[in-house]
Amino acid sequence: MTATTLFEKLWQAHLVEADTDGLPAMLYIDLHLVHEVTSPQAFSLLRERGLRVRQPSRTLATLDHSTPTTPVRADGSRTYLDTATEQQVDALIRNCSDFGVSLHGYDSPDRGIVHVMAPELGATQPGMTIVCGDSHTSTHGAFGALAFGIGSTEVGHVLATQCLLQHKPKTMAVIVRGQLPVGISAKDLTLHIAGQVGVAGGTGHVIEFRGDAVRALTMEERMTLCNMSIEMGARAGLIGADGTTIEWLRGRRQVPQGDAFEAAAKHWRWYRSDDDARFDKTVEIDAGEVAPSVTWGIDPGKVIAIDAPLPALSASNARAFEYMRVTPGALITGVRVDVVFVGSCTNSRINDLRDAAAILAGRRVAAHVRMLVVPGSERIKREAEAEGLDAVFRTAGAEWREPGCSMCLGMNGDIAKPGELVVSTSNRNFEGRQGMGVSTVLASPATAAASAIAGVITDPRRYQQEAAA
Amino acid sequence: MSGVSSITSRSVALPIANIDTDQIIPARFLTTTSRAGLGRHAFQDWRWREDGSANPDFALNRPEHAGAAILIAGDNFGCGSSREHAPWALLDAGIRAVISTAIADIFRSNALKNGLLAIVVSPLEHASLLAAAGEALTIDLRAQRIARAGHAPIDFTVNSFARQCLLDGVDELGYLLARQDAIARFEEARP
Ligand code: SF4
Fold first, then answer.
1. Is the domain of A17 the same as that of A97?
2. What's the per-residue H, E or C state across chain A?
3. How many angstroms separate the alpha carbon of residue A345 from the centre of ligand 1?
4. For an engineered disulfide with A422, which of A22, A225, A331, A339 has Cβ 3.0 to 4.6 Å away?
């Protein structure tokens, strides 16, 4: 038998109808994740056509994008940005109840950012196809699942038929060899790869992250990596299932338990590329070269090592320099920071909060800096509070918020002011992403925390070494 | 959706690379639960100044480009968020076709489902279209050809299934619903 890629295995296992000349394949979807922003028009479509949700049990909804992260009032009510955001949340609550979809709303201990809470529940499993009306659905690829973002019309297609029409993408291997240096996080690796591949390098492809440095990552770190595949233009990101995947899933609510788990695990292990599998495109990365990395421009492909000088001015980057108000050829360290955001489906998991807390412990956020720490889910919030991380953040002068997407896209009103610069652990630094006229520097939780303390963009190794000394 | 077979209009250039869907429609306008009325906010932060007045430097605001329905955009158009609000906003703002050297996967898929043509041309052809921005173009979807006065026509391809859906004005949901038996068989055969 010929060697097969993980992507090919996933694709073949879900073909209701294979693609033929010109006709797209009909792909069966195992898990459909739903949130309040991209679903209302899809539920309207179902209503207009008198359709029902074909598989409510394969559909899972949560509230995350437009929900407030400010404290819940004593009577349990929340302070929304405006009536539109509140109505959007209410619409999802109503749609889920009308169509029999299970919703992890405010009353659920499992509510959270859709790409954080679904893996926590064990809803995300190797060998699945997973979609959501959200481009960062690629996160779930970390489990050896084919997971990708879709538009609202397609959300309607999946609700009504549990299927999608798809043209087969190409495959791309990103092989990360060697070992990450001590203190270098998965986010640094992810940004580094985004810088190498570029924002369109993966267009039309599904990226599989491979190599010993990828195998060495924890599940949380793998999620950070797959999360940003879309920032490389890729349709999805993948990592083959292995012992790390299986142990992480053991005991989670929606996975089989006991002997059934062992049987499932045996099946899951098949979801990896065969040794000699061939890819349409391959990029090699040396993990040993990765430094704390940050973006400096207005797309996630403009990445530098934090201690390297900014590039020279050119026709293709002039717009980025103008918007970011940084100097060609200068260092980015020392640039004044106004806001620091630790959160988003890229970096709001417990390990991310620990990384930030390790640097903030015993120190204070600079007086002119506003720092928001937003856990990715209710579960992470509880876990962090049990460890006392919330106290570390509060004592350092940071705000400890309710779970949600928050400043990652600022739909709920968590934004910065025009002209401000945000060091953010999220995934997009597009113009205005965190508020009109706001500049975003993407970074790891450690870099974000170090920059909050110093009040300027700062190499986290400065504080990490202090701690070690 | 009504069918699309050809579009004739003047072009307007937005020669910025990597225009992401946050630029096409910023997140703060995604709170809507309908598809209508987003055109006002297409390219909001480039098009309107903080006081609400039109930015006279922005191409789409210039009187000579009024009514232009064909957008020639810089490389890699539509990257970023999967929000279908982006093609909804462009269509509502009168844009019916976008031409670039590369168009991000999800945006292209969303665009075609809504009757917004997303067309990829070679870098050379792209440069020539940009240089002649403002000219009248006819995009013939059936022939997959862009006709220009005084220039050689430009051929392009749109995947045949999407093209047929656009020409016939049918949507994919009908196609999927017609295959419910196959879906049921697939579901039954699963372990
Ligand atoms: S945290 Fe950001 S990227 Fe992730 S789902 Fe929310 S808005 Fe999207």
1. yes
2. CCCCCHHHHHHHHCEEECCECCECEEEECCEEEECCCCCHHHHHHHHHHCCCCCCHHHEEEECCCCCCCCCCCCCCCCCCCCHHHHHHHHHHHHHHHHHCCEEECCCCCCCECHHHHHHHHCCCCCCCEEEECCHHHHHHHHHCCEEEECCHHHHHHHHHHCEEEECCCEEEEEEEECCCCCCCCHHHHHHHHHHHHCCCCCCCEEEEEECHHHHCCCHHHHHHHHHHHHHHCCCEEECCCCHHHHHHHCCCCCCCCCHHHHHHHHHHCCCCCCCCCCCCEEEEEEHHHCCCEEECCCCCCCEEECCCECCCCCCCCHHHHHHHCCCCCCECCCCECCEEEECCCCCCCHHHHHHHHHHHCCCCCCCCCEEEECCCEHHHHHHHHHHCHHHHHHHHCCEECCCCCHHHCCCCCCCCCCCCEEEECCCCCCCCCCCCCCEEEECCHHHHHHHHHHCECCCCHHHHHHHHC
3. 6
4. A339
